Amino acid sequence: MSLRSPLSKVLGLGAAKQGSHHWWSQRISSVALTFLAPWFLLSLINLGDVGYASFTSWIASPINSVLLSLLIVALSYHAQLGMQVVVEDYIANKVVRMITSLIINSALLLLAVIGVLAILRIALSVAPAIQFQMGTGS
Amino acid sequence: MTSNERPLSPFLHYRWQYTNTLSILHRLTGVFMTLGLVLVVYWLAAAAAGEENYDLALDLLRMPFIKFVWFTWLLSFYYHFLNGIRHLFWDIGLGFERRVARTTGWLVFISSIALTVLTWMCISVRLYASDNGAFL
Ligand code: HEM
Question: Is residue A12, in this structure, part of any structural domain at all?
Fold first, then answer.
């Protein structure tokens, strides 16, 4: 017989074996995306040219590189939380479910890291050129 | 364990209403966009890999089939975005009344198609005009 108080019962932890943390994270990432995603889309339309020079210098601007990194992180986090729910809903077998989740989570983490590193690399390689021009321009 | 054999999604067995379709669409678009994330990150990574690599990547990203994928991604995005806002309003207890929920449901459906077409046209006009035009 367990002497532990049925705290999990009191807290209403359901089939997911956790509280409302997942739910809140999903909402917070959703609200962030509500702003970041349209911002990126409008920026692209406004940029009008995704050729190498134009696109990289757009990314390299400080505000854009910060917001774009945030977008990538929010996107992959939101997708991870969302896919977890989908996997939990459709895959009944515990082992298969865990392995599927692991693959999805790893893939999304990998994508997020590649994305942010790409932005960082562009920001760090393009920005000095602008400084250089400013330094020698006068 | 017997609990593993119970249906995990009992809601799937309810009578069909078009609201069911709207709700499963949110899931389908979410999953589809998650797969599409590979393309988005590939595009960014290509930009970080220098001009030559980026140009090669653009050739690939402009292929008709990939263009179709971008279009579907955009449509998915607008639907999921607008319907997501609907979800967020539900979460703070707004818009649950049957009539309101139906109206906003249709509004989301129609607006997402309209916005996709509008965006696609903007992109074509603005981006195809230049030689560096977009794959979008
Ligand atoms: C502006 C953007 C977005 C908003 C406001 C938004 C909002 C939401 C909300 C509120 C949910 C939870 C729905 C529920 O409780 O059943 C959700 C689920 C989900 N979202 Fe998003 N989302 C956005 C963009 C995205 C993007 C870009 C992706 C993928 C790359 C994505 C992938 C998913 C997935 C996979 C789910 C899980 C679907 C499910 O459980 O049925 N979302 N989204």
Answer: no
